[in-house]
Amino acid sequence: MKPEDGESLSLYLAVSRTTVSAVLVKDYQGSQHPVYYVSKSLLDDETRYSHLEKLILALIMASTKLRHYFETHRIHIKANYPIKSVLRKPELSGRMAKWSVKLSTYDLIYEPRTAIKSQALADFVADFSSDIQPEADSEVKLLDEDTGEWTLHTDGASNMRGTGLGIILKSPQENIIPQSSSCEFQATNNEAEYEALIEGLQLARDMNIRHLHVFVDSLLITNQFNGSYMVKGDKLAKYLEVVKDIVGYFYTFDITQVPREENDEADELANLAPSLKICDDVNIPILHILNPAIDIENSNHILKPLNVDTLEISWTTPVKEYLQTGKIPDGETNHRAFKTRISRYIIIRDTLYRKSVAGPYLKCLEKPETLEVLKDIHEGDCGNHTGGRALLSKILRTGYFWPTMRKDAMSYSQRCDACQRHSNILHQRAEPLYPIVSSWPFMKWGMDIVGKLPKAPGGKVFMLAMTDYFLKWIEAEAFVQVREKEVISFIKRNTLTRFGIPAEITCDNGSQFIGKRTTNFCEAWGIKMITSTPVHPQANGQAESSNKIIINNLKKKLGSKKGKWAEELPFVLWADRTTTKNATGQTPFSLVFGSEVVLPTEMIIPTARTSLQTIETNNEVLSQDIDTIDESRDIAKIIMAAYQQKIAKSYNKNIRIRRFQVGDLVLRKAFQNTTNPTNGKRAPKWEGPYRIDSEAGKGAYRLSTMEGEPLPRAWNAIHLKIYFI
């Protein structure tokens, strides 16, 4: 049935394993009448397309054979599958991108399939034949998942001809992004492997990939990254540091060593061999790297060819010129693609507008109008400091357009000072767990103050506690106040005169611990005082854990008589010393004295050792225990190392490493003592900016103000975030 001029038509698609077909339909008096039917038998390579690609191929075939209808009518594409979403995916293959450009020139509307109203269209009841319908549904599910894992194959080669890098990046849909790079500097094979890995990680990061699995054929790199091998040489250590810094960007990351034959494509790219077989529509860019990736001073080490003049030309100039005179710019090589792009623009009263998919025409802007629009919509009278995506949506709804508006909106929102200072506090763990190991008993102690507690007899409201990292032995006393004098006296009574001189004592930054008197005392006795970073008690976790144990046991023993905690403290300590610890598998008492303590219960109800043993056998067993106490401690040390490794593995599952470089600007989390109390709930959550001066180790950094004045203590990365300017 012949359609009228300008009348809307409907298009139904059908796909089988070997053919694709389409029928153009006209709605007339409540029934559907076929206008034209087209079909195509799939070529051998086309049969290997995904089913969604076959569906789009049917649409392309119909638009080619029925071009005169597509150019003069509005076509309603009736399909229950997300054709429009597939065409707009960012990781399109080459042919899909071409198809998307071709279809953009037509007036197409994508709608869900409705019931067929004609018996002649019975073959088009469904988009896919029944035998491939489940496979198509699976592809849709995979398309909707944004958590698909990408795979990266890298390889580096260093020989007489120079150093080359090969990269193969694969999407979850098996689309391939190959890349080959030539290094303009000398490098060893191991350095070339690291360069290839870093180049691939940077490519994945630039594409906003969050889930990545890397395959390399270098056993050295894999084991150095996993910590199985030690890193020898400063240069390889710097390479490993760069790799770990980039890896912190990904949500999930894994690296696997594979045999060389399973990494042959990346190896061939690294050697630029002609045997690599890829699709004809995939281009391999050749990049020239001037400096190593670890050279911070020359971070822009990729030399890109210049294709445009240094003079900046307005992006609207060639568009207006073509619409007014029909002249195509001299530098435009693909005239068809340029005309397709320009077909979305129109000039109204000497002003350039872009046709919008939904809504009014979009006025095309240039600088500095774009900055004014961004500023006014983001922070003006009607602005509410939204994020980049919401800012972009608001600009489009208002009716403005420029080619880089998405990137500019994201960047402007990211660099907004008010948004950064009032952004949410980051609770994600920023550093892996670093277990603290003590080599021998009473070598390393953790010290902390607890209080104020309920007032005990004598006005005692503070508790000073020390815990041995190896044996988990706790010493604690009650005090009216804890000054440097009390700290020194406590260390002498409970540590020096009982267990000897410790090598290290870990504490916080309290004035009692870092004062001149305490510092001089520790230096005189050869004791190293290690202070944790401010507002980060996890750095002295052993002392904090002991405090929690003591307080919980006191609460359970005292009930409502909280003021007697100082009298009950020695019994709580004795109970803890005679309790088996999970970390060592033994009691602190047995590890110190070589035998288990006799409990009061054994005096009431005798046990075998209190009722059956004689003095002679008891002395013999005690002598044996004392002789083998070193073996017991060694076993406890092994158990403790395994326990720490297990805890660290569980802790490190949910971390997102936050690393900073020297010179970076950061914001620091605002605390109660650093904010203005008059601000109330209006107080910013972050303060600064500060500059990174140096790395203090294990996720801690030394900061300075913008005027160059250093802050007195190092700060942990969990309290910092990058500041964008």
UniProtKB/TrEMBL annotation:
Superkingdom of origin: Eukaryota
Ranges of residues in domain Integrase catalytic: 437-596
Single GO term (MF): nucleic acid binding
Keyword Translocase: no
Residues covered by the RNase H type-1 domain: 146-275
InterPro entries: DNA/RNA_pol_sf, Integrase_cat-core, Integrase_H2C2, RNaseH-like_sf, RNaseH_domain, RNaseH_sf, RT_RNaseH
CDD domains attached to this UniProt entry: RNase_HI_like
Keyword terms, alphabetized: Endonuclease, Hydrolase, Nuclease, Nucleotidyltransferase, RNA-directed DNA polymerase, Transferase
A GO biological-process term: DNA integration
Protein name listed in UniProt: Uncharacterized protein
